[in-house]
Amino acid sequence: MEALPARARVYVVCVTLTALVCLVPPPGLLSSSPATGVPWWPVVPLAALYAGCERLARSRPVATPHPGGASYPVLLAGAFLLPPSGAALVALAGALPLPVEQRPYLVRRLWRTGRLVLAVWAASRVHLAVGGREAVADCDVPGALGTAGAAVLVFCLVLTLLDGGILALTAGVLPRGGRTSATAAWWQLFLRSLVPLTVHGLAGLMMALLWRSPYGPVAALLVLLPMGVSWWAFAQYHRERAAHQATIRALVQAVDIKDGYTRGHSERVGQASMMIARELGLDDDRVEVLRFAGILHDVGKLGVPTRLLTKNGPLTPEERRVIELHPEYGHEMVRGISFLGEARAAVLHHHERLDGSGYPYGLAGSQIPESARVVAVADAFDAMTSTRSYSRARPVPVALEELRRCAGAHFDPRMVAALVRAIGRSGWRPAVTADEKRPDADGHRPPAAVTEPAGPVTDRSGARR
């Protein structure tokens, strides 16, 4: 949002003005709701509780990637207890004072507050219209569940519609993909938000029921205890995940710095490995592990002299043997990283071939781990479709045809077929990863490219990947 286009700023202003209109209470509701007799005094403790939960969710011990959702139970409890304008006031009083960490500060503050005010107002309005206040007041749990579900659905719908609008205006979803792309993006956003918001809605309903019960508001606070534990566990999971990503990112950056000709290769092999894994129908955890395997497959190049990685001429047998040690170097580097799982085997065996002609151990057929067979295909494909110091990029159809030709001898036919299907459906954007005019250590500029002779992808280029 740092460079918000004018149309996005107008959108934020319109959302803010509409939210201000929602804060105006209808006549007769300045002190209480005639239908339920609910006083307006809960606005103050709920707003304070909401702001406190938000600050706690952003604090270091329990910080989560999406701290805004941590306090939604309080907002929804307000929607179930208060008239629409009162519930909107809880969101306003709680969200407006919260700090903003990125520019533009005012626009972000107005956007965060306005979207919540509108969503809570709409949820409270629907809850009131379907008789939810009476169900909460009578502690009619079955009736309260149904009416709360309708309110949560509207809450989710309004939030995702508003978010989809700002994304389309700031990220350019509509110009790039047209109306169909924007609709698909919004639908994915709605589905991702619905389940967690339903959980928050149940917690908010429990707060509202306890609030109206003989036990009073203090008992309602007890609902936040298990929610707090879940926030903390969620934060620990994401903190650990962030540490994993930082470890992988540091290793890949080190490889890219050492071998500039293949910069970006690791990420693309990770992407291709993930495409193959998804096409094979593997579960999400294994897909993620195979993405790690693709990203880290060449980390052992850190142990190979740079002069060999960037050499323009033919490799001598001794130089080839040195380069062929990089899978073992890589495995030594990552074998102590437990979260990588089977990715470690892929780092070690991604240059093995089905016919036993690969390295470092000459494994054949099913002796080669499945993860290594996936990465081998992804690695060979990206190597062929990228320009290196020793080979010019081949067109994607040519590279796929070469993989098909070598399937069964060098590559697992299942993995090749999976990549072909995935690229046929999603496409592939090959990238030139070498600066073809970069000077060498002596200041001489190499030729534009040394064209790889037509033949198997396991020629000299295979030892460089």
Automatic annotation (TrEMBL):
Region described as Disordered: spans on this chain: 429-465
Ranges that cross the membrane: 74-98, 150-174, 186-209, 215-234
Keywords for this protein: Membrane, Transmembrane, Transmembrane helix
PROSITE patterns documented for this protein: HD (PS51831), HD_GYP (PS51832)
Pfam assignment, any one: HD_5
Domain HD-GYP: 240-435
Protein name per its UniProtKB record: Metal-dependent phosphohydrolase, HD region
Organism: Streptomyces griseoflavus Tu4000
